[in-house]
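User: Design a sequence. Structure:
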């Protein structure tokens, strides 16, 4: 009887239809607004944010002082966010229910957040993109090492 050769196990191939990794970030005030939502609203909105990160065209582009930002909706709930160019990263600026004419209108809250010197939104977006790219690099190096 011939000696059996040790088998060389190859890692399972990654499925071709695997969804790309995404990163969803929140500025401080948006995180508080998001956590104040019901579980059902959070789950639905988070699913929409993931889809927005995968396909930025799903968001409705905003105009005026909010040019460069997009809106996604879930019923009367509005989320104002900024998508990164290239990386699958979304930074949420505001999460609020639509209340036109009130001070709690999501678009008015977004304009205030952009004007707030404490909230450096561009720096926050750059930090999230950098962290996302670093996590992708680490994942790629692990895949290469396992081959």
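Assistant: Done.
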């Amino acid at each position: 009887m011939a000696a059996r050769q040790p088998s060389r196990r190859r890692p399972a191939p990654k499925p071709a239809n695997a969804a790309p990794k995404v990163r969803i970030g929140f500025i401080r005030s948006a995180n508080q607004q998001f956590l104040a939502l019901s579980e059902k609203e959070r789950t639905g909105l988070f699913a929409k944010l993931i889809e927005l990160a995968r396909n930025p065209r799903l968001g409705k582009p905003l105009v005026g002082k909010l040019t460069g930002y997009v809106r996604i909706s879930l019923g009367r709930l509005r989320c104002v966010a900024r998508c990164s160019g290239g990386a699958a990263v979304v930074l949420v600026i505001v999460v609020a229910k639509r209340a036109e004419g009130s001070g709690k209108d999501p678009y008015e809250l977004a304009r205030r957040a952009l004007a707030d010197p404490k909230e450096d939104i561009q720096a926050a977006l750059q930090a999230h993109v950098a962290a996302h790219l670093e996590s992708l690099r680490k994942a790629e190096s692990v895949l290469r090492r396992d081959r």
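The two ends are 32 Å apart (CA to CA). The first helix runs from residue 28 to 35.
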